[in-house]
């Protein structure tokens, strides 16, 4: 309202007489009084309507101060108004270009338009400076435009702007964003002076690109140089500690936070929770979480994700229910974490509730939520629901395709999985098969016994997609050949693996050797497995059974005795079902269940009916 009272043309005379106004415009020394008054009012504008009123007065009194207007319009985030005003500026100067480039970059994230304006600025012969390049580098980093970034870097060096802190920091951030950490470190090392922002930019770059060890190393170097870390430093280091599993350094960071009485806000608190969660210390993570006075969605998500990533699905769902009661708005990260927990334990009812919530909130087509729903429905046995969600997704990424292909494969629908793989390879414009895709299709071949097709796909990885097979792919091929009874070919495959075979791969082959009573390959696999996993009871038991099947009783007894000598005990098998939205767990050999007698009676009836049908159990494999 203050503008309406002061700036309507009929009321301008309250401030200036006509004579005074004329005298002010004729004055060549500085701005006229009306100009000064308008600019003062412009600084106070908080709505676009107020800015428009000021603009109207400037046009009436022929005051050309477009740069001031442009800056205010950008601060108020009106894109169309800003671009229209800029296009009507006659011969815009460096300042006008710089503030417009800044607005396009930071306010609207229109990085391509910002770079277009930068090149237009250069084509007009205007001087680019230390106010231009930080935003140019920000654009290059977000667009992954490495070559354009390098050219701008050369111009900075040529024009002597490298000494500017902001330019140097933005260069480090750009190279970090595009994954060129060698270039980022070179910029950092060549800085004649470094402040805390310089160190933070480099440490953050390392942490965000997975160079966690380098991030921690640089943090130590920074401390030796006498710099005191701030919140941003510590959050980056905590992320690196989590990736490395370095809970000791993480503890030291927490002690520093307490010692310096730093605020345990959402930023710092969630970083500590994430670190402890990744290190598997859920007790400390929960201690931090419970100790926070204010918990926003980021804090809740950190704790929920920590439980989910550590396989504590019941705790994940319980905390999710508590979060809903507080009234905190759930977001896509919350839903993805909880859906992951639902998939792990088959909590279909909770998963359906989340699906309904996502539909009501309009986020069921979010690419991450939809993919998590596919995984949840597939693992709960509702494959058709999973496929329906997949087909309804407006946009799919590699993870979406992989989730659906893997779901079809593990449900034994191999031909559909292979057909979807072909569709992804030939028709998808935004996704290309990756390592995980091939694990899915090779698994489909395993379940269907498609040996030749599996070999073709394995060869296709490198010949058509330029992918190097990993242990997981070799494991699928060994499993495929083992199930087909071709254990010698499977062993040859193991010998070709460039890296050391893992226990999953060898376990698949040992199981095949047990089934086929092949002691030749079986003993070779046994030796490797017992060296790799001396505490795994399954390896001893299967080895014992292989010898027993061949009636080599002494060797069978030796394996059992070796197991006892090493103090290895067999972990009882367990399973669970969902009943009235509650999960009921069953453990082999346990009779502690409240309705154990009724369960055994039902099982006895089933056994009798199976015997009547002529079923004879194969006790050799039990």
Automatic annotation (TrEMBL):
Flavoprotein found in the keyword field: no
Pfam families with a match to the protein in the record: E_motif, PPR, PPR_2, PPR_3
Keywords: Repeat
An individual GO BP term: RNA modification
InterPro entries: E_motif, PPR_At4g14850-like_plant, PPR_rpt, TPR-like_helical_dom_sf
Lineage top rank: taxon: Eukaryota
GO MF annotation: an example: RNA binding
Repeat region (PPR), residues: 93-128, 195-229, 296-330, 366-396, 397-431
NCBIfam families registered for this protein in UniProt: PPR
Entry-linked PANTHER family: DYW DOMAIN-CONTAINING PROTEIN (PTHR24015:SF553), OS07G0578800 PROTEIN-RELATED (PTHR24015)
Protein name: Pentatricopeptide repeat-containing protein At2g34400
Originating gene: LOC104215815
